[in-house]
Design a protein that fits this description.
about 10% strand; 6-stranded mixed β-sheet; about 60% helix; Rossmann fold; 4-stranded antiparallel β-sheet
Length: about 575
C-alpha cells in the first residue's frame, strides 16, 4: 500500500523521534498556556461578582483580595510557562527543520550520484536542482512554522471543546455545530488543492531547468543574438508557473470567507443561548463571560485552517517529489568483488558485447576485443561508430545488453564500482572542470596529492608552462567549467588530472582534439612516459596521436574492420590508410 507523504516523512525522521516528540509537547503546552488568560478572566469576574461564593472560595480561600492575589500569581506563572514552552518549541522545531533539511538534501544527492547516466539523460538538470533546493527548502519552511500551527490548531480546538462540554454541556453542542461542516469542506478543499500544488512544484522545476540551461549557454545566446527569444521563453515558463499558482490560490483564498459564516453561526448561538441561561439564573456571569470570549478560540482557528492546510499541501507536494527521487532504484547495482590497485594487472576484454542506447538499434553488436595488460591500443573511426561508447561500457556508465566486459578476467558487473573506477583514468573529449583553482582541478580525485606531485603531473601533460603564466599560477581561479581557459588548456588540465591519479588503466578519449599542433607534438613526447607500465586505450581522430600504439583498431558502424600496427594498416591500404593520407596531406 502506498504511504502518504506525511507517513514517509515521519518514517524518515524516525532517528529524531525524541526531538519530534519534545517539539510536539512544547507546542501543545504553549497553546494550552496561551488559552489560559480567558479562563483566568472568567475566574476573576467570578471572584468580583460572587466574592465569598466564587470558585476559588470553594477551594478554601475566602478573602476576595487574597483570591485576586492568587489569580495574579497564576497569571504571572502562566505567562512565564508560555514563554518558556514557546522558546522550547521554536528551538526544537527550527533545529529539527535544519537537521532534516540537511540530512534529506545530502541523502537525496548521494542517491542521485548512485543512479546510472541514462537517468540523467532522461531528466533535466533544472528539475533535479528544483527538487534538491526548492522542494527541500519548502519542507524546512513547513517544519519551522506550519507544523506548530497544525499542532496549535488541534490542541486549541480539543481543549476548548472539552471545556465547553464540561462547563455548559447544553450549549456546547450549538457552539460546535458548525465544526462538522467546516471539516467536511476542508476535506473536499484538500482533495482539490493537492493536485494543483503538485502542478505548481512541477512547473517550478521547468522554470529552474530553463534558467539553468540559459545561464549555462549564455555565450551561445549572445553569439546568436537570441536574447529576445530566450527572454520570451523564460516569460512563457514563468507565466505558466504564475497561472498554476493562480489556480491553487483561487481555491485556497475562497475557503476562508466561507468559513466565517459557520463561525458567525456558532458565536451568535453561544451569545444568545448563554445570555438567556444567565438571565434565568442557570449560569454564572463569570462562566458566561468566559464562554463568549473563548468561543472564538474554538471556532476562529478554523479560519486559519485553510492557510495551515495550504502550507501543509505545499510541503507534502515537495515531500512527494523528494521521496519519489529517493525511491528511484539504481539500475546498475555495484558488485562485491574487490580489485585492489596494488594487485590489478590491467588486462581488458570485451567479449561478444551488444549495446544499444534506450532501446534503439544496437550501436555495438557482438563485438569482441582483447587488450593485454600494459599494452597501448588505439581506436579510430568515423563519428558515431561506437568508439566512446566502448570506453563508457568499460567504466560501467552503461550496462551491456549481451556479452561481458572483463578486467583481469573478472566480469565488471561483479566488481565493486568504486574499485573499478578507481583503477581507470579517463580523459573525456568533453572536458569538465570545476569552479576552483588550477591546482584543485588537477588534484580532483587525488585529494591528498602534494604540490610537487601536482606540478609533475602538469609538466607531463605539457600544462606547467601556461599555468605559470596565469595571474596566480596554480592558485588561479578558472571559473565555472574552466571558462577562463582555452579549450586546449582545459584539455591539458584534464590530462594532468588523469596522470596524477596514476591509474593502471588509462583512457584517452580524443585527449588532444582541442590542442594546437605544437602542443600535440609535445604531448606525444610525454605519452611514452604517461603510458609506461599501464594499459592505455587511446581514441583519436588525429592518427598521429596513436601511430606508435602496439595495436590500432579501426571501427565502422559498431564493428572492428581493421586491426594492426600503424605500418601494417598502411600496408593493408584500407580505411586507415585513406584517413592517414587525408590527414598527412598525401594525395
Amino acid at each position: 500500500m502506498t504511504q502518504t507523504p506525511l507517513v514517509r516523512l515521519l518514517r524518515y525522521g524516525k532517528p529524531y523521534q525524541v526531538q519530534i516528540l519534545g517539539a510536539i509537547i512544547c507546542s501543545t503546552f504553549r497553546t494550552l498556556f496561551d488559552l489560559a488568560p480567558p479562563y483566568l478572566i472568567g475566574v476573576a469576574v467570578d471572584v468580583v461578582v460572587e466574592q465569598e461564593a466564587s470558585l476559588i472560595a470553594r477551594l478554601g480561600i475566602q478573602d476576595p483580595l487574597t483570591q485576586l492575589l492568587v489569580l495574579s500569581i497564576l497569571t504571572i506563572a502562566t505567562w512565564g510557562l508560555e514563554s518558556l514552552s514557546q522558546y522550547g518549541a521554536d528551538k526544537l522545531w527550527r533545529n529539527l527543520a535544519q537537521t532534516l533539511q540537511h540530512e534529506l538534501r545530502v541523502d537525496t544527492y548521494n542517491h542521485l550520484q548512485g543512479l546510472e547516466l541514462t537517468y540523467f539523460e532522461d531528466r533535466s538538470t533544472g528539475t533535479l536542482l528544483s527538487i534538491l533546493n526548492d522542494d527541500i527548502n519548502q519542507l524546512e519552511r513547513f517544519l519551522n512554522f506550519g507544523a506548530q500551527d497544525l499542532i496549535s490548531f488541534f490542541t486549541r480546538v480539543f481543549a476548548v471543546g472539552i471545556s465547553f462540554v464540561l462547563l455548559v454541556p447544553g450549549i456546547a453542542w450549538f457552539a460546535m455545530m458548525p465544526i462538522p461542516f467546516i471539516l467536511w469542506g476542508t476535506f473536499l478543499f484538500q482533495l482539490r488543492l493537492a493536485p494543483r500544488y503538485d502542478t505548481v512544484r512541477d512547473q517550478a522545476g521547468l522554470i529552474s531547468d530553463r534558467l539553468s540551461n540559459n545561464l549555462s549557454g549564455i555565450a551561445t545566446i549572445k553569439s546568436f543574438t537570441a536574447e529576445a527569444y530566450e527572454s520570451d521563453r523564460v516569460y512563457q515558463e514563468s507565466e505558466a508557473y504564475r497561472r498554476s499558482n493562480g489556480r491553487a490560490i483561487a481555491l485556497s483564498v475562497a475557503f476562508q470567507p466561507l468559513l466565517r459564516f459557520f463561525i458567525l453561526l456558532g458565536f451568535v448561538l453561544t451569545l444568545y443561548l448563554g445570555g438567556r441561561e444567565v438571565l434565568q439564573g442557570q449560569l454564572s456571569v463569570g462562566t458566561y463571560g468566559f464562554m463568549v470570549f473563548i468561543v472564538q478560540d474554538l471556532l476562529w482557528p478554523f479560519t486559519e485552517l485553510s492557510e495551515i492546510m495550504d502550507e501543509y499541501q505545499r510541503a507534502m507536494a515537495s515531500v512527494r517529489r523528494v521521496m519519489g527521487l529517493l525511491d528511484t532504484p539504481a539500475a546498475m547495482p555495484s558488485g562485491h568483488h574487490r580489485l585492489p590497485l596494488t594487485t590489478i594487472r590491467g588486462e581488458v576484454q570485451f567479449e561478444n558485447i551488444t549495446f544499444a542506447y534506450n532501446n534503439r538499434n544496437p550501436i555495438l553488436k557482438n563485438l569482441s576485443l582483447y587488450i593485454p595488460a600494459k599494452a597501448t591500443v588505439g581506436i579510430v573511426g568515423a563519428t558515431g561508430s561506437g568508439k566512446s561508447t566502448l570506453v563508457k561500457l568499460l567504466l560501467r556508465f552503461y550496462e551491456v545488453q549481451r556479452g561481458r566486459v572483463l578486467v583481469d578476467d573478472i566480469d565488471i558487473r561483479d566488481l565493486k564500482l568504486l574499485d573499478l573506477r578507481q583503477c581507470i583514468g579517463w580523459v573525456s573529449q568533453d572536458v569538465f572542470l570545476f569552479h576552483g583553482t588550477v591546482a584543485e582541478n588537477i588534484a580532483y580525485g587525488s585529494f591528498n596529492a602534494t604540490v610537487e606531485e601536482i606540478i609533475q603531473a602538469a609538466k607531463l601533460a605539457e600544462a606547467h608552462e601556461f599555468i605559470q603564466e596565469l595571474p596566480q599560477g596554480y592558485d588561479t581561479i578558472i571559473g565555472e567549467r574552466g571558462q577562463k581557459l582555452s579549450g586546449g588548456q582545459r584539455q591539458r588540465l584534464a590530462i594532468a588530472r588523469a596522470i596524477l591519479k596514476d591509474p593502471p588503466i588509462l583512457i584517452l578519449d580524443e585527449a588532444t582534439s582541442a590542442v594546437d599542433n605544437e602542443t600535440e607534438a609535445a604531448i606525444q613526447k610525454s605519452l611514452a612516459k604517461i603510458t609506461q607500465n599501464r594499459t592505455t586505450i587511446a581514441i583519436a581522430h588525429r592518427l598521429s596521436t596513436i601511430r606508435n600504439a602496439d595495436c590500432i583498431y579501426v571501427m565502422d558502424k559498431g564493428a572492428f574492420v581493421e586491426a594492426g600496427t600503424h605500418e601494417e594498416l598502411l600496408a593493408i591500404n584500407g580505411l586507415y590508410a585513406n584517413l592517414w593520407r587525408v590527414q598527412s596531406g598525401i594525395s
